[in-house]
Design goal:
The complex is a heterodimer of chains A (about 190) and B (about 160). With about 190 residues, chain A is an all-alpha fold. Chain A is built from 9 helices and no strands. Chain A has 2 domains: about 80 residues, no CATH class; about 70 residues. The chains are: A mainly alpha (about 190), B mainly alpha (about 160). At the A-B interface, helix 2, helix 3, helix 4, helix 6 and helix 7 of A face helix 2, helix 3, helix 4, helix 5 and helix 6 of B.
Chain lengths: ~190, ~160
């Protein structure tokens, strides 16, 4: 198998995890930046819709590195999808596949199920909750918590900050409750 | 501009570096972002299915990713501190401590809900749009509005 074929295969966790972990020292060494992605949402608010709210009155231009970083993530997504795409459907566990089939979700051709995340779905109640309410909770929750998976779970814990461990445990508890107890009702809508 | 009460939450996410980056020097963050976005997609971390498998304990994959990322992160930060490694500009590396407030619990739970619904943290949202799932632009705008709404009502929330 050629190198490009190996790269096109899905990468195992023990390759992806350490590469993500390395982002922490890379950002510190190239510019004293603490890894954190959800702050970009705040900078976008500060730049576009500050509305005289004190939380958005700061020099966001000084933090523009973060916007370059997330724009890079977007470009990385394009490169990976168009030049390094895995030709095979996403492999998912048989249990999940069976569960999802009961909600009419059978399309595993992409990384997100088309039945839930598409423009057609947006105009259904189920799709609206998933796309709009889900996004709102991500934006509100991460800022209220003071960070997301990158800022707390990876950067904060890397710096041995116990509040980040608390936040990470709460992310997981929230995720367990939603995925197991509430999401089944949303998916049956 | 900050009153004392808001100090902790107002400054988080704002970096300590005193060196002002020019537009050109910001390009290096763009490159790191591109690299990061490729990892996100190729390891399928941005997959809604992977996140469901994680929260339903059906697969070890995401635990392996986050766990090994944390191990590498902890070791790197300890090395940087122990050997007093400087930035490439020669500045001392400073990492802001995280101070505890109740937002980490309430906000953490809310983000957990959103994470399980959308299958994405803020980073993967940008990568998902890149892979061509354009409707995620709506999720991103909604997340930006969520952040904005937090800023609007934060003084009324328990912290």
């Amino acid at each position: 198998m050629s190198l490009i074929e190996i790269i096109k295969e899905p990468w195992p966790w023990y390759v992806a995890g350490p590469l993500i972990g390395l982002t922490v020292p890379i950002l510190l060494i190239i510019g004293n930046k603490s890894f954190g992605i959800s702050s970009s949402l705040r900078h976008i608010c500060a730049a576009c819709i500050p509305a005289n709210i004190s939380f958005f009155k700061y020099d966001w231009k000084k933090e523009s590195w973060n916007l370059f970083f997330v724009f890079g993530i977007f470009l990385g997504g394009i490169i990976a999808a168009y030049f390094l795409a895995n030709p095979n459907p996403v492999e998912i566990t048989p249990q999940l596949s069976e569960q999802l089939a009961t909600y009419g979700i059978t399309d595993h051709s992409g990384l997100l199920p088309k039945e839930l995340f598409s423009w057609e779905s947006l105009f259904t109640l189920r799709g609206f909750i998933m796309i709009v309410l889900g996004g709102f909770l991500v934006g509100f929750g991460t800022r209220y918590a003071g960070g997301c998976t990158s800022g707390h779970a990876i950067m904060g814990i890397s710096n041995l900050q116990w509040p980040s461990l608390v936040a990470t445990i709460c992310f997981m508890i929230g995720g367990f409750i939603m995925a197991n107890l509430i999401l089944p009702y949303i998916l049956s809508l | 501009m900050n009153n004392l009460e808001n100090k902790n939450t107002d400054t988080e996410g704002i970096n300590g570096s005193q060196i002002k980056d020019s537009g050109f020097s910001n390009l290096k963050y763009l490159l790191v972002g591109i690299f990061f976005g490729i990892v996100f997609v190729k390891a399928e971390i941005i997959s809604w299915f992977r996140i469901q498998e994680m929260f339903q304990l059906q697969s070890f994959f995401m635990y392996g990713v986050i766990g090994s990322a944390v191990v590498v992160g902890v070791i790197s930060v300890q090395i940087i501190k122990k050997f007093n490694i400087k930035t490439i500009q020669g500045e001392k590396i400073e990492i802001q401590p995280k101070t505890f407030n109740k937002g980490q619990i309430y906000g953490g739970l809310m983000f957990g809900f959103g994470w399980a619904i959308t299958g994405a943290c803020p980073g993967p949202l940008f990568a998902q749009i890149g892979t061509g799932v354009t409707v995620i632009v709506v999720t991103l705008i909604s997340a930006i509005l969520g952040t904005w709404f937090y800023g609007l009502i934060k003084d009324k929330l328990p912290h």
